[in-house]
Amino acid sequence: SASPVTMENELLQTASNFTDAPNFRCTMFNSDSEDYKCVIIIAVKRASAAFSLIGCFFMLFVIWLFRKYNSLAQKMILSLTLAALFDSIAYLMGEVIPDGALCNFQAWWLTYFDWCSLAWVCCITANLYFNLVKETRTEHLAAVYYVAAWGVPFFLSCLPLFGDYYGPAGAWCWITDEHVVWRFGIWYIPLFVLIFLMMSCYLHIFYIAKKRVLTWSGPYDPEKERSKILLAQEIKPLKWYPSVYLAVSLFPLINRVHNAFDPNHPVFVLTLLHVITAPLHGLANAIVFGFDRETWSQLNLTSLQLAFQSRFSDTTLIMEYRPGPVRYVAHLESDSSDSCDDGTGAIYSSTMTSWDRRP
Which pTM value belongs to this model? Predict the structure, then answer.
């Protein structure tokens, strides 16, 4: 058997081969002595993406189990969940990918689904504004929402691809350090402009809602008031999604700003915070979704059992009606309360006569 010294030398040689292999070289830090930082960054990125993926699957499971996909608002949350799920898959990709077709694909994938997630949050905000402020139903705008949230991001994500601006950009592939203007022009500037607009929109929504509570005019309409309550309950959890997007985008912005001014000296702490928060869209959405009062009230053993029974144990049976033979008979008692003027009894089947049905 091999001695402990020999085994230790083999492990050290294996680690050295791992570090020196071109496929595993990390381009985030320049010094070879800092390769351990790359290992930490990659591991943290994968962990954050895995938690986000689990959160997305949790949301999809609850949406499917409790059939939360009927109204337009619920369908929008479902679409947001799908976008965050595919975004998490891109962050789960392996080591730092060298420049090439696979790197370009990862960069396009991230740009597309990041934009899809942002676009769905914007659509949710617009839908909330129309429902609460304008007091109008928005089912007729569903096609517009889908085109805006799935179609427009496809166009935007293809622009850097056509210009060959994608490549290694830290812990994953994205727009390279040489094209800082594209980074901010196609993502960060629109991102924070839209977040600012959404926050302003929510302030206006809250102002209008509070004003309507304090003022009352016109005759009382119970049905209209009930519709308002149901509508408010349906869209109440939607107000937190823009805040979630702001929270997970703050550290990535700070890190990219630092990269723009000093691309040759990345800061490990900023990079670490970047890779922790950037993949967390799905997990943050799941937390907001799970802590919604209606959803939280359903996450108990009784509700889950009933929901599973409704899904897998449908006891409703639809069978064809087959009538038995029908005939007429004369009653034996003339003074029976069930007698008819023509001396015949009521219609009955072969197993029950009108005489048997008499009280």
Answer: 0.74
